[in-house]
């Protein structure tokens, strides 16, 4: 049997913010690639880097397995891999060198390699797979094994006589149900469970019901699955969930789609299929506020076990939403949040500061929206230019000194915006404090009209910290020039 080692290049421990959360997920996209190769008769070993210290650990493994092929296949469902963090890029370079030293054919499929293929070829990779990789990877290995030409394979980048050859990209998979289930059996699930236990949260596995996103937010990169949207059937997903529930005794899931339940009536059919199989699960998703307002979507989500929704609110300023080509309105953010809260569904906001043209008035509108709606969770970032986006094209001339964050907590402004990095880092802390203060005050108001809980008590007690350390936005606004120095 031909020996293949498939690995990924994300290391939670090299991203302090993510490792601190203690909520790691297995590399789902990598597991799909492994199972696809196995289904076609290849012997495949998985080397999961997610929970490891550094890439040097793989040297002993490669020496032991002596694979013919060393495949670095990143989890395209993990948004952190799309960010092309330099910590992970450096780790990938090291792993390529280890593969080269062991005389492997080194194949790389990742967002960063798709965007920066020459950098990876310079480091010794033999082939780069651009975009969705399962079919390309199989065709490439088949061709090499049969000693057939590889030059015409769609979706690959390679060097020929010191010239970089970029072949056309392969069309994306349409019938996702043709894919076998991911190779969960090769994952050390108990190790993941042990880390989740330290987070004091219920253990959660990741699952994807779709690939791609049809929306055109001009800052959002889609290097792996593209602007197309293809979906598994509800029957496939429920069968997959049943397997995970029965095999690993897990009841909670992160639906890691860019957009969950976009296909008409998909959520309703999913709810029906869960009931047929008597599956009682809970899950959380990413979605859009306009999508959530369609028909009976929220009701079907609630019935099927939805626990929390992360929405790309981004800004409380309609001017900024329009500049982003977001396609949503501030009014929809307010309405969707109200409806979800009425159904006891947790609502979390992704917020993005620093977009081109943002003024202090726009910032103020965003803070006001957060304080008005008081989401259950908040993720704040600054605008981050990624190759392949319209936003990147607008600011790429500013990216000479720094074009990628080191880790996901970097938050550096890499282009010339209204304010500098120092300002936005202070704003990041300020908004979180204002948000926690608003949460505490809202909880205090309901103290005697709702069920008591330790969580509510903690929220109220935090006011003792947040009220003295925060000021009204106007004072922060007045000092903005000082924070830009």
Low-confidence stretches: 469-473
**Based on helices, strands and strand pairing, what is the structural class?**
alpha/beta
Oligomeric organization of the protein chains: single chain
Q: What fold name goes in the CATH topology slot of the largest domain?
A: TIM Barrel
The gross shape turns out to be globular
The count of strands amounts to 15
Share in β-strands: 15-25%
The helix content is: 40-55%
Tally of discrete structural domains: 2
**In the CATH hierarchy, what is the architecture of the largest domain at level 2?**
Alpha-Beta Barrel
Per CATH, the superfamily of the largest domain is Aldolase class I
**What kind of sheet is the major sheet?**
7 strands, mixed
Kindly provide the name of the CATH class of the largest domain: Alpha Beta
Radius of gyration: 23 Å
């Amino acid at each position: 049997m031909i020996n293949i080692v498939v690995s990924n290049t994300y290391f939670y421990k090299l991203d302090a913010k993510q490792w601190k959360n203690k909520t790691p997920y297995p590399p789902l996209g990598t597991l799909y690639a492994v199972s696809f190769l196995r289904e076609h008769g290849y012997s495949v070993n998985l080397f999961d880097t997610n929970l490891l210290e550094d890439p040097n650990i793989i040297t002993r493994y490669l020496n032991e397995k002596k694979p013919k092929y060393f495949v670095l296949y990143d989890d395209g469902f993990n948004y952190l891999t799309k960010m092309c963090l330099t910590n992970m890029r450096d780790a990938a370079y090291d792993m390529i060198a280890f593969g080269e030293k062991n005389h492997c054919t080194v194949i790389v499929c990742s967002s960063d390699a798709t965007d920066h293929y020459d950098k990876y070829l310079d480091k010794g990779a033999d082939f780069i797979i651009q975009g969705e990789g399962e079919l390309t990877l199989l065709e490439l290995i088949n061709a090499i094994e049969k000693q057939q030409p590889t030059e015409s394979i769609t979706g690959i980048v390679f060097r020929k006589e010191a010239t970089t050859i970029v072949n056309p990209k392969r069309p994306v998979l349409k019938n996702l149900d043709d894919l076998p289930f991911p190779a969960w059996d090769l994952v050390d699930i108990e190790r993941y469970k042990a880390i989740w236990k330290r987070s004091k949260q219920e253990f959660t596995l990741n699952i994807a019901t779709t690939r791609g996103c049809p929306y055109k937010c001009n800052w959002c990169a889609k290097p792996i699955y593209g602007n197309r949207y293809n979906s598994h059937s509800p029957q496939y997903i429920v069968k997959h969930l049943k397997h995970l529930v029965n095999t690993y005794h897990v009841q909670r899931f992160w639906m890691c789609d860019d957009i969950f339940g976009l296909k008409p009536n998909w959520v309703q059919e999913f709810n029906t299929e869960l009931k047929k199989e008597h599956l009682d699960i809970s899950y959380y998703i990413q979605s859009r506020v306009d999508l959530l307002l369609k028909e009976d979507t929220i009701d079907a989500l609630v019935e099927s076990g939805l626990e929390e929704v992360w929405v790309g609110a981004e800004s409380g300023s309609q001017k900024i939403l329009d500049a982003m080509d977001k396609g949503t309105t501030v009014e929809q953010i307010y309405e969707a949040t109200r409806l979800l809260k009425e159904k006891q569904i947790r609502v979390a906001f992704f917020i993005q500061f620093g977009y081109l043209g943002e003024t202090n008035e726009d910032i103020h509108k965003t803070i006001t929206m957060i304080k008005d709606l008081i989401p259950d969770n908040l993720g704040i970032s600054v605008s981050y230019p990624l190759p392949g986006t319209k936003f990147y094209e607008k600011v790429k001339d500013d990216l000479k000194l720094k074009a990628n964050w080191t880790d996901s907590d970097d938050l550096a402004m890499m282009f010339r915006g209204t304010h500098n990095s120092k300002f936005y880092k202070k704003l990041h802390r300020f908004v979180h404090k204002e948000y926690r203060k608003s949460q505490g005050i809202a909880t205090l108001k309901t103290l005697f009209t709702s069920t008591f809980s330790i969580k509510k008590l903690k929220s109220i007690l935090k006011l003792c910290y947040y009220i003295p350390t925060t000021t009204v936005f106007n004072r922060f606004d007045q000092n903005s020039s000082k924070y830009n120095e």
